[in-house]
Amino acid sequence: MALTSFQFRGIVEALTKVIRFDYPTDAVMSRYFRENRKLGAKDRFIIGETVYATLRRYNYLEAVIAPQEATPKYLAIASLLKVRGHSFRDIADYLSESDKKFAEDVKMRKPELNLAAKAELPQWVIDKLGWADEDVLALGQSLQQNAPLDLRVNTFKSKPQKVLDALAQEGIEASLTPYSPIGIRLKEKFQLQKHPLYTGGEVEIQDEGSQLLGLMLDARRGEMVVDFCAGAGGKTLLLASAMANKGRLYAFDVAEKRLSNLSPRLKRSGISNIYTILINNEVDSRVKRLYGKVDRVLVDAPCSGMGTLRRNPDLKFRQSPKSVEELNQKQMAILVSAAKLLKPGGRIVYATCSLLEEENEAIVAQFLAANEDFSVLPANEALPKKIAIEMGDYLKLYPHIHHTDGFFAAALVKKAEEKKK
Fold it and tell me: pTM, whole model, 2 decimals?
């Protein structure tokens, strides 16, 4: 399918801004589209899809372009021809004579790739994983694909089967997610934000793996619960729904903008037991006031995001061993403070969307070594019994195995007080 001049120029312009890797790609793209309001929905879709496809296959495209420099225009041409499946004729009208020669040449190139380039993973990530080559490749190839569009049903307002039936009546193909009992996976993406199921608060967009993290906390009606790193509130809303809107649910975050994004979602959901609290850091006085008073705490810790490369491929270029080391210090500090919120017998779930052991098992092991009054609740025991997924002590989800984003979660229980004789 031929591209328009607006679309081709937009791809090149957007890539020029994105491949500086100064800011998250989604933020850069949002700003680009705000600055170019004349672009239609189809234009934005094609530009966005091509930019993300380019980032997912960046190492391959660099190899294809070599020995020439991987400029934004060359990346756009190579991506459209070698990744997106366009023909030379689709873009020929927008190329100079030298660009046409490059495009005709690049179409035929088949470069030799090492493991890092095949997997589209940084070598330092491969080294830290310590996996066999075939497992690295399977993971890497899964992260090169578009993520599916998963929905979480707001059980305070609806039920999964009811939502499925409503979608089927409109000819929208969807199915229940294999693990989450409140998830629905759409076969194809569409403008969900304008759909009555979304505007009416019956569904939210949420990866199935993210749903499982929230369900692992097993929040119950009438309890006091804290979502320690609430962000825009996806898991907060899940917890509130699980609590049937009864009890108190505190949503903490250090970013006012992220918390403000929860407001319209909260209004749609019909839920009223969430209290958003802006904090300065993990030891804010507003946190300390709740020490020893909370039944359950979810810590979706800031992390490298290496499990979300399907959605955020730019993280491969913006993270490093040094940044992970800095994150480790923050992760431990947050977990230590969040754990102090718990009553005896309470449960905390520490989770990341990382695949790296030093952000996951190593943090938990370090915490347990310093806090003998906490123990691990195996993942299969922490998750609701109706979730059929085999796990050991920890929940570990992988895109190439579970078709979710990559996630880690550990459920830790604080020792209950001994009854007086």
Answer: 0.94
